Amino acid sequence: MSDTLVATSGPVRFARFAFPPNRLGYCGPGDGGELAHYTRGHEDPGLRDIAAGFEGAYPYLQLLAGANRRHDPLDADVVEAYWIGNELLDHVPLHDFGNSIDDRFRRRAGASWQQIENRIPDGVANHSYHVMNAMPWAGLLRDGVVDEPLRIIDRCRISWATVIGHVDDSADASEGRVLVRRLPLVWSGSRLLFGESVVDAVDSPFPVELGDVVAIHWDWICERLDQRQLGWLQRVTNRQLADLHAG
Questions:
Q1: Over 50: is that where the pLDDT of 102 sits?
Q2: Long-range contacts of range 22-28, CB-CB < 8 Å, 24 or more positions apart?
Q3: Which residues pair with 223 in a beta bridge?
Q4: Buried b / exposed e across 119-128, counting CB within 10 Å, b at 16+?
Q5: What does the pLDDT look like over 68-79, one tens digit per residue?
Q6: Distance CA 57, CA 114 (A)
Q7: Is the N or C terminus of the chain more exposed, i.e. has fewer CB atoms within 10 Å?
Q8: The dihedral of CA 177, 184, 79, 102: what is its sign?
Q9: Torsion angle, CA of 157/162/165/167, rounded to 10 degrees?
Q10: For 15-60, how does the pLDDT look when each residue is reduced to its tens digit (9 = 90+)?
């Protein structure tokens, strides 16, 4: 495993996490073509314009930045807080968080709004909250529609995984198509749980090494994780899973 992690700017970090669903047409402007360029580490004002067009993620970044007196929603720590988790999440007042969710989702959610509102007190301005609690997929699971909602929740949440090889069986895992081992989410019939570990083939826009722990979003490596980041990602994911099934 690599001993040191290379610092990534906030805008590039955002591009690497936002690109996978964008290229699939799930969120953000365009079709991922513009963002693909930025995942390689390039940065210019155009990246900020693209980021502001993400109607799902960008308001959370604005909320985090304002609550933590960061002038830039694409500050590296702010972006980390949203996608992975860090202490900035703890500084967002519940009142502000609740108002933001209300403004954005009450009318859109319709009859399912009450379920979202009930979970606001335990929510955080993190992608795991957005996927598991603000979006409709968990409700569909409860209604018996399982396969596609489960796939979306499991692939859209940020997973942690360990690099175990290269798809062409070369000796060193590097940039390109990489094999990782991770814990998927499964549906028990009443709860989302972690299942047995699986091996997935994923893409990486930067070199990784065997044993690296990485963040995965829609079969794409977004970032190599140190122990602090891994702890936060696991904590916020488990918290939102618990909140999802509370009561």
A1: yes
A2: 22/54, 24/218, 26/156, 27/54, 27/55, 27/56, 27/57, 28/53, 28/54, 28/56, 28/57
A3: 215
A4: bbeebbbbbb
A5: 999 999 999 999
A6: 22
A7: C
A8: positive
A9: 0
A10: 999 999 999 989 888 776 888 889 988 888 899 999 999 999 999 9
Q: What does the pLDDT average to over 184-206?
A: 94
Confidence class for position 7, pLDDT limits 50, 70, 90: low
Whether residue 194 contacts residue 185, with contact meaning beta carbons closer than 8 Å, is answered with: yes
Looking up tokens 């968080």 gives 97
Tokens of 105: 């989702």
Structure tokens at 148: 């596609």
Amino acid at 64: L
Which tokens sit at 210? Answer: 């065997």
pLDDT per residue as tens digits for the range 132-166: 988 888 888 888 999 999 999 999 999 999 999 98
Per the document, the length of the chain is 247
DSSP letters along the chain, please? --S------HHHHHHHHHHHHHHTTSSSSSSSHHHHHHTTT---HHHHHHHHT-TTTHHHHHHHHHHTT-S-TT-HHHHHHHHT--GGGGGS-HHHHHHHHHHHHHHHHGGGHHHHHHHGGG--SSHHHIIIIISSHHHHHHTT--HHHHHHHHHHSPEEEEEEEETT--SS--SEEEEEEEPPEEE-SS-EEE-S-EEEEEEESS---TT-EEEESSSBEEEE--HHHHHHHHHHHHHHHHHHH--
